[in-house]
Known about the structure:
Chain A is mainly beta. Chain A has one helix at residues 40-47; strands at 7-14, 29-35, 54-58, 74-79. The longest helix of chain A has 8 residues, at 40-47. Chain B has 26 helices and 17 strands.
Amino acid sequence: xxxxxxxxxxxxxxxxxxxxxxxxxxxxxxxxxxxxxxxxxxxxxxxxxxxxxxxxxxxxxxxxxxxxxxxxxxxxxxxxxxxx
Amino acid sequence: xxxxxxxxxxxxxxxxxxxxxxxxxxxxxxxxxxxxxxxxxxxxxxxxxxxxxxxxxxxxxxxxxxxxxxxxxxxxxxxxxxxxxxxxxxxxxxxxxxxxxxxxxxxxxxxxxxxxxxxxxxxxxxxxxxxxxxxxxxxxxxxxxxxxxxxxxxxxxxxxxxxxxxxxxxxxxxxxxxxxxxxxxxxxxxxxxxxxxxxxxxxxxxxxxxxxxxxxxxxxxxxxxxxxxxxxxxxxxxxxxxxxxxxxxxxxxxxxxxxxxxxxxxxxxxxxxxxxxxxxxxxxxxxxxxxxxxxxxxxxxxxxxxxxxxxxxxxxxxxxxxxxxxxxxxxxxxxxxxxxxxxxxxxxxxxxxxxxxxxxxxxxxxxxxxxxxxxxxxxxxxxxxxxxxxxxxxxxxxxxxxxxxxxxxxxxxxxxxxxxxxxxxxxxxxxxxxxxxxxxxxxxxxxxxxxxxxxxxxxxxxxxxxxxxxxxxxxxxxxxxxxxxxxxxxxxxxxxxxxxxxxxxxxxxxxxxxxxxxxxxxxxxxxxxxxxxxxxxxxxxxxxxxxxxxxxxxxxxxxxxxxxxxxxxxxxxxxxxxxxxxxxxxxxxxxxxxxxxxxxxxxxxxx
Lengths: 84, 607
Ligand code: SF4
């Protein structure tokens, strides 16, 4: 028997050098569908984001790493670097 | 002495004399250099209550022991003086080439006192010191002044000067060096203008003694390699600080329309990729810097043509989103104009943003200023940058800064300042530590006084929650002391925060201690260095208290304390300053009124 996989739409935004991980015409922004239970970190790793040296945000806040994404969430990542 | 020459040049502009003073080695060590030495001379040499634009004010240029050393980014100097914009202290930092050339003159520090009868400049070529007439460059913009003075001295020399804004005592006036680098904040250029000192030109061959030169070279080389291989720092080379608007917008703290909100709909037109695609020619670097964050740009959009350096994030925030302007050509043009007239882009942009809001609120009328100034008006913004620099028409009011402007209409609440210094580009309602920093920095709302945004926003050295207030008083003390140390030693903060402290949020200066000891041989420990920084910070606080500052001045605009943000992750948030401030005083060893206790002063040798 096969289970039903629920897909959810989330927004991804990759800033500065991480923009290059998405196709250029996306300009660092993309809507994606992820399976239920996916975390922000899972999603970003699948895109090639080096998590260890990154700031990860969901709706602008630092997420609990085990928290699954919700429909409509906005996931953002950028390199943890010196300020402005 | 190694690391320091132990020599200060005192220039009396009133009678045109110069005196060489020597420095006691114990003093040199206890106050480190740069910002540290300067506050001691300022405190001992002037009445903190004196008018900042009177001859009584001292204008101090100071290098640190690492300025001109092999340490990467050892290229900074500090301008320390009483600020005419804020009425309190200022210490304004700049890099480029000039500070290294300053060190090659054989002096660690320069003190300018009095006031020249006519415009002059100081020309130092090794041991030859001359005060020359500057009447032929008075009125000239920064690039022309620089070129003229280099042509008549030595083309390989380096220049710091003021532009027309400094001459007119505009309170946003900066001291520009190498044309495009600025000791920008708090109106230091107006102090220079009030002294009729148009420029200083430095050339020299002196080399600083070094306790362990091979050791210093080795450590510096390995740091250069480390920086070169660090993908995180490469962001600054590729995009420079303009990568930041996307970050602060995401966090809902990008200053927008005079800090009415923290999200700007036009952010994608003013971010790093937009700058790279349209105007960036190449990245540039200050002397001996492996990070290479400067932006060398050229604009050929009709009406906005120009070339030079910038804009940096802070300029994009103040001249762009804070004014509701998303036209990057116009922002870049305004940035060039600020450099040419010699002004601080933050105070300029934020003062115009303040005027825009007051115009929209009907407090300033179109009839009065002869222009319908509104948020989003790029050309109006540029027009008022020029008027401000030259004090033309309404520009004369803008030239006093946003606090004086708003207060003159009976509405100081429209000025987004702390101690009358305009906010930099982080809305503290969404980065609470920054709120405490703006309220307690010794120069007013400056991020450079202890930039906890590194941790709250950028995750360096580690990410902390920007919306909580727990532990923020402790962290702000740490960051203020660490940044004092950076300013006193002569490094650039971009390098320092990441590479000379231990990699956690407490910023323990293990590697900085190593660099300082290889240079000075002064046997610092991380603890004694931090204590010296704390000594400097407390002496600065004493200067403020003597100038008349009280606890009531350690505050933020009403908007930050009472009007919650309405969108983004920080929606509903204000700065809970009342809850953080008493704890901050306690952590600092100050009493309930914000005055250092006798015990604290004794501990620091300041009694
Ligand atoms: S990091 Fe940027 S500002 Fe700092 S020294 Fe290097 S080029 Fe200059």
